[in-house]
From TrEMBL:
It comes from the Bacteria. Coiled coil: none annotated. This is Helix-turn-helix domain-containing protein. Keywords: DNA-binding, Transcription, Transcription regulation. InterPro entries: HTH_HxlR, WH-like_DNA-bd_sf, WH_DNA-bd_sf. Residues 18-121 form the HTH hxlR-type domain. It comes from Chryseobacterium terrae. The lineage of its organism: Bacteria, Pseudomonadati, Bacteroidota, Flavobacteriia, Flavobacteriales.
Amino acid sequence: MSDKKENNLENRAFTEECHTVLNAVSDTLYAVGGKWKLMIIIAMARGSKRFTEIQRQVSGISARVLSSELKELEMNGFIIKKVENGYPVSIEYELLPYSQTLEEVVNAMTKWGIQHRAKVKSEHTAKKSKK
């Protein structure tokens, strides 16, 4: 009977831990998930500040999607939109210090992406040489 009770407690702890991890990953994906958000942040960290500069750096993104993603990044506290009145009106986007909290994530993704590309490339080459 004691073993059954211990298993129940272990299963509950495992389920709670799993739930915590799933919630955390879900929150992360909500804030920076999708094809473009991290790419926009990376482009901005490299100096792109104006809408057209960001769009040029993040190849393939449409103006409508970029506008939407910038609004979401602003809503989640990663960037701020600065509007300078004058003629013409000047709009720049600036990374907030909070965006630096993504540095480890971006570094890990970069490392994994390089490793994955090399793996896929070597497997593709190996398949070709077998034919």
